[in-house]
Structures are given as C-alpha cells and as structure tokens.
Amino acid sequence: MKNEPAAPTQQQDAGHGHHHADHILHYPPSGEVPGLPRISATLYNQDLAPTKKEGRHWTSYSIFALWANDVHSLGNYGFILGLFALGLGAWQILLALAIGAGLLFALLTYSGFMGHKTGVPFPVMSRIAFGIRGAQLPAAIRGAVAIVWFGIQTYLATLVLRVMLIAIAPGFGALDHNSFLGLSTLGWLTFLLLWIVQVVIVRYGMDMIRKYEVFAGPVVLVTLIALAVWMFFQAGMSISFSTSHPLTGGAMWRSIFGGAALWVTIYGTFVLNFCDFTRASKSRKSIARGNLWGIPVNTMLFGVIAVVMAGAQFKINGHIIGSPSDVVEAIPNTVLVVLASLALLVLTVAVNMMANFVAPVYALNNFFPKHLNFARASLISAVIGFVILPWNLYNNPVVIVYFLGGLGALLGPLFGIIMVDYWLIRKARVNVPALYTLQDSGPYFYQQGVNPRAIVAFVPAAAISIVLGLVPFFHSISDFSWFFGAGIAGVAYYFLAGRNRHFEDVSGEPIAVATTH
User: Fold this and answer.
1) Residue 5 domain-assigned (yes or no)
2) Which of 34, 193, 278, 334 has the most other CB atoms within 10 Å of its CB?
C-alpha cells in the first residue's frame, strides 16, 4: 500500500483557513472516515471532490439555459448556413437537425446521469475506466481542445464588439486598421476587455456560471427570434426554401445524414464532460427534462431561425449570410445594432464559459490538486488561451483542420470507452471514495494507476478516427469519424475489459463537499 500522510481532523483542517476564499481542501472536511480508503491529497481537493446530494440546485431550467445559449452559438449558425450554401433546403436542414438532436438527447442524458449519481467532475469520472493516473489522458485532451476554443471564441466576440463600438462612435474605426501580432489596436482593447469579463465571472465558481447562463438564455432566444422576424419582414414576408442549385437524390441524403453526424460531433466535447454540470443537478428527472427542452425542442427552434435568416437573405439579394452578426451589421438603426450586438456578446460569453472554460479548470485541478482550486485554475487556463494568440490560429486553416480536428477525433474513442465501462460493464456500480486513493489494492489503481486495457482499446480507435477525419481519401465518410471512433473503441473495450468481475457500489457522500464553492 502506498504511504500517505494521515488525513487531518476537521479541527486541524479548519486551522488551515478552511473558510478562506482561496483555500485548497486536501482532505475531506471530516478528516479520515472509518471504513473508507485513505484519501490522497494528490487526487482530492474541493473541486474534484464529489458534491453532496443535499443542497444541489441545478434545476431543469438551469440545464435548459445551458442549451438555450450553446445551441444558438454563432459557430452553430455558421454551420447551418453552410448547409444551406451546400444546397440543402429548409426541410432537409431541419431533418438533419432532428436526427442529430435525437441522438444527442440520448447521449447527453446518459452522460448526465453519471454526473448526478457520482457527483464527480469529468477528470475524476475518467478514473473509473482509465485509472487514477490514466485519467490524465482524457482530461488533458478535453482541456486542450477547450483552451484553444476559449481563445478563438473570445476573439470572435471581439468582432461583434468592434462593430458595436464603431456604430456608436465611428472614430473607433481609425483604431481598427493597424496590426500588432495580428490584431489591431481596437482588436487588442476589445479582446482584453472580454477576456477580463470572463475571468471575473468564472473566478466566482460554477454557481456564478449557472446564474449567468440562466440570465443569458432568455436574452439570446428573444434577440435571435427578433432578428429572424425582422429578416422575414425585410424579405416581404416570404423566404427562399433552398438555393438555386439544391441537392437531390443520393447526394442530398448523404448531406442530411452527414449534417446530423456533424451536429453530434460538434457536441463531442460536451457529451464527455456534461457531468461537470449535472453533478450539481437536483435529480435525474431534472436532467432529462432540461435536456428534452434544451436539445430536441430548442434545436428545432434554432433550425427554424437559421433557415428563416438564410432564406430571407437569399430572397432579398441572392446572397447567403455567414453569421447572425452579418444581419446585425445590416440593421439601419444604430440603437438596434447596439442592442443586438450586446445580446450576441452575452451569448458568446455564455457559450465560452460553459463549453470552453469549465473543462480546462477541472483538468488543471486534476493535474495539480494540491496547488490549484477553481479560481486559480481558471486564471491559468485563461492566460494560456491568451498567450497562444488565438486569432492567428483561427486565421490559419491548417491549424484549425489538423490540430483541432485531430484532437476532436480523439473525443469519440474516449466517450466510447467511458460509457461502455460505466453502463455496460459496471452497470453504474461505482466505488466513489476509491477514486481518491493511491492504495494499490484499490479498484481503480489497475497497473501503477493506469488501466492498460483502456489504452489498448483507445489507441487503434483514435488512429482510425484521425485517419477517417483528416485524410482526404476518406472525405465521403469523414463526417462520421466520431461515430467510428466511439464505436470501435467501445466494442474493443467491451471485449478486452472482462465482464465477470464484482463491482462495489459505494456512495461518495462521506467525503463529499457542498455544491457551491
């Protein structure tokens, strides 16, 4: 058995400043718990610990608000408008979304149930299948994708903010023509402003993120519906339901199913770490209900809005817009431009914090639990997202396709292994306290803390997924690379893992902490 220092008593722990805002909790607040394994300070702190069932306050509406923001992201509108440009008409786009949303609802609901039952964040959830040390692999991959996208989304938000500032005071336009390290003076000022706003919000923890998402959801929905209605009237109360060169036959159906698959792939990050949010949910019913309204219902509303925008613009002048921000720029009233721009900024910040800030915070905590907490890790991830100069990455198609595309291709195999291990092999039986011990007799210690069977299943599936996703020869099936990766890894792991073992189901409640930190 690994030697660990004795866990302090509750009184000793309090002496370390337990109530200080920047305190890092190395052991359960109650100290050593009789009958449970010795908790390791290298695996446990207040952000990685399970959440107490009592006091969880993410409701159905909290979950719905996440999707009310994220589904309506500018990137998603760009994706749907791209399908319209490709030649898919209104009903074909809506069918693709319906198929994708149905699949996502199932995947995200089962992923969410894992978080509700165990109360642990994604890096700790990964310890179940990959081992207490092997979990660093999925946590690092998910965190790396998120940090890069955090920087890119912040940069995309500056484009909206710059339009708004120039509309208010045209003199700002003079600051937007020079370039230093790839960004104008106005670009630097707006990026710094939005970067600071996000850092401040996230430093208050997950509950502040929940409150922001709940505030932003209605603002986003009302604004985008209003933009679609305005475009509809501009087009004479009718729209084009397709371009002048619509797809038909086999090409049409391939694009419909490809679009549905890509809609799932877009959320390949989220299906992995949805437990980061649902670990604070009140019940399984609240997750299912929030997902139902937030994914299938909300996605179809999103599709209708996008189709109206694209069809109205095409009816007006034969052009296809690339983003709702293009609609905002065309609004002739300065006050309305400012209001619409503010709403898009609220949206982009909401999407960024949910999709791209939470995951690296937990990943960094998992690497350095003795030294980091939510506030410190959020600052580090934000600094990394800044110093990589994300606008230069975004403007380089090679980086977007090969770096982010390659990392994204790894998410499917990770999901397949984690879900098969939890649902099919263990049947949701998890010894939560054992996820935080270095005892080599622990069920998640495997071989030196790594489960070699998970790695053996992951590597070939990841290689196949990357090849299918990035090699031009496989272009016709590249849209489905996430499914190939998840399926191959899941099936391989199912046969490698062995299903005749005994699994204990032990609650994490004795070592849990309050949801709000």
Assistant:
1) no
2) 278
Is the whole-model pTM more than 0.85? Answer: yes
Q: Which pLDDT does position 206 carry in this prediction? A: 83
- The CA radius of gyration of the chain, in Å to the nearest whole number, is 23
Contact yes or no for 374/361 (Cβ under 8 A): yes
Residue 169, SS3 per DSSP: coil
Task: State how many domains the chain has.
Answer: 1
Q: 315 by DSSP, 3-state: which?
A: helix
Which of the residues in the chain have pLDDT under 70?
1-22, 30-33, 404, 516-517
User: How many other C-beta atoms are found inside a 10 Å radius of the C-beta of residue 392?
Assistant: 14
CA 288 – CA 68 distance, rounded (Å): 15
3-state secondary structure 388-408: CCHHHHHCCHHHHHHHHHHHH
Angstrom distances, CA of residue 319 to CA of 145, 157, 240, 255? 33, 24, 11, 21
- Cα–Cα distance measured from residue 437 to residue 314, given in angstroms and rounded to the nearest whole number: 60
In the three-class reduction of DSSP (H, G, I as helix; E, B as strand; rest coil), residue 51 is classed as strand
pLDDT the model gives residue 33: 67
Query: Is residue 51 included in any domain, yes or no?
Result: no
Residue 143 covered by a domain: yes
In the chain, the N- to C-terminal Cα span, in Å, equals 32
Specify the pLDDT at position 282: 93
| Best CA proximity match to 69, nearest among 271, 296, 346 | 346
Q: Tokens 């999925």 label which residue?
A: 138
Q: What pLDDT is recorded for position 494?
A: 96
* DSSP per-residue string spanning 107-159: HHHHHHHHHHHH---HHHHHHHHH-TTTTHHHHHHHHHHHHHHHHHHHHHHHH
Residue 127: predicted pLDDT: 98
**d(C-alpha 333, C-alpha 277), whole Å:** 39
Q: What is the CATH number of the domain that holds 194?
A: 1.10.4160.10
**309 lies in some domain:** yes
Residue 98 domain boundaries: 60-511
CA dist 115 and 97 (Å) reads 26
pLDDT digits (tens, 9 = 90+) for 86-107: 899 999 999 999 999 999 999 9
Task: Identify the pLDDT of residue 16.
Answer: 38
Crossing angle of the two packed helices 185-203 and 334-352, in degrees rounded to 10: 50
- Distance in angstroms (rounded) separating the CA atoms of residues 144 and 27: 28
Q: Where are the beta strands (DSSP E) in 221-314?
A: none
Query: Per-residue DSSP letters for 321-341?
Result: -SSHHHHHHH-S-HHHHHHHH
Q: Is 42 buried (19+), middle (13-18) or exposed (0-12) by CB count in 10 A?
A: middle
